[in-house]
Amino acid sequence: MKIDLGMIGSSAAVCGPIATRAERVGFDGLWASESVTDAFLQSQAALTATTTTTVGTAIAVAFARNPMSTAYLGWDLAALSGGRFVMGLGTQIQAHIERRFSMPWSSPVARMRDFLTAMNAIWTAWRTGSKLNYEGTHYRHTLMSPVFTPPHHDLAIPVMIAAVGDRMTELGGELCDGLILHGMTTTAYLDEVTLPALRRGMETASRDRSEVSLYCPIFMVMGDTEEQFEEMKRKTQEQIAFYASTPAYRGVLASVGYEELQPELQALSRAGEWARMGDLIDDTLLGHIAVLGRPEEMPKLCKERFSGRLDRISSYHPWPVDDDDRLAEILRGFADGAENRVEEVAR
Known about the structure:
- 48% of the residues lie in helices and 14% in strands.
- By secondary structure, it is of the alpha/beta class.
- The protein has two domains: 269 residues, Luciferase-like domain (TIM Barrel); 69 residues, no CATH class.
- The chain is globular and about 60 Å long.
């Protein structure tokens, strides 16, 4: 299992130092996130500050762009990094696409399929010199002059998409190199919804599980002191309550018998009762979604829960470990057979 570091909320200006430290202490990958800044700018900063670490967008908003502009970004970042860049795309939701980005919205699965197919057609034209002639339902790319064709390279550009529901997950299994799952999940939901949908998508394209990587930022609730632990626990309860208030995650709640909580949380969110929402996430539900323990316990606990289900994980929250040597030793525990040594060091 690979252990990555998410850079959510970090501006491009600070991503370089974050990436340098992450590579030094042993994180396998870095993920830029499009929340307060551009994920591709974050990625560029991280890639130029590292030499071996994988850097991806988790996610960049596909529907805020078009396949051509996104293809250029992926192509350049792959060239810049020697093939260490991963293109992670997500749909966002209708309100943000239409009202924040002022872009068109339609059936997200169908539009994402068209977007991915168009982007691949563009890359194929650049790699092979063939005529660009893509005409899809939502996107049409039929002009590519030599003056606008970027310098040639044959570097792979893995593409992953964010998925919660079964139809988007099937699409990822059929067309993509991986899926970016949401931390708002449970092992029951993974086993009953995500993994079966992934298999259906792979079967459609006659693909093997080894061809699709599953990444998920995990709610790791950890701390060295009771005060530190309780603070992170409360933040996690509030974050889970925020996600659980939206209908998209009702299926996740239903997987562990909490489906009736969703409308209650939604009503509180509409009333602006944000502080009360976290109180409704009891310890049982928290335990289904989050992994709780000391930092040194995270490799063992995460592998027990997610080995055979996920390929890459990160902590949704920042690691509460300032000492680089200690953090490096903890991270080595995510490699196969290493967790016992980390536990022994901790004792």
